[in-house]
Design a protein that fits this description.
- The protein has 203 residues and is α+β, with helices and mostly antiparallel strands.
- It folds into two domains: 63 residues, no CATH class; 95 residues, Cytochrome b5-like heme/steroid binding domain (Flavocytochrome B2, Chain A, domain 1, Roll).
- Helices cover 36% and strands 7% of the residues.
Length: 203
Amino acid sequence: MSQFHHEFPSDYRNAIEWWQCDPTKWFIWTCKKLGLAYDLKQFRQNEIEKGRVQQLQKKLDQKRATLDWGTPLEQLPVISWDDFVTESKNGKALVSIAGVIHDVTDFIKDHPGGKALISSAIGKDATAIFNGGVYLHSNAAHNLLSTMRVGVLRGGCEVEIWKRAQAENKDVSMLFDSSGKRILRAGDQVTKVVQPTASADAA
């Protein structure tokens, strides 16, 4: 509570909720009711809520830092399609989704859809399959997939364009936490591709 008064020194309260233990606040408020104090100052509630949100964000950032979000895209090697296919034939279970190459070798046996389905995507572009062509994977599945990424396809559309923009210090729409790490919201994973809705003309 002392931090509140340090942050908002013009506020007569040391704890803003009426039920929070703050004898001084209660005494001053009682004095006001008795006409012994007046013009009590309170900091704008909007600014107090901002401070609350920022403190919550700090806690979220600390928690986020302990989790595995996968190798950042800008740190991944750029791999040609031919090399991707060749490595897939040489024992590595590599799958391409949205221009990002993932090594699913250790996950095949645990795949909820069975070994056959995921094995059929090895050495191929499985973007459509992963995003509703066969099964529309959950947010958790996209998060898990991010921990398996090992490279970016050369010419991998949005991913490589994003990498190049980063290298050239161009403006790229992203959010970062207080430690400078990218914030990834649910549904914003690079592997999340919304399938186009068929129009009446296309039917």
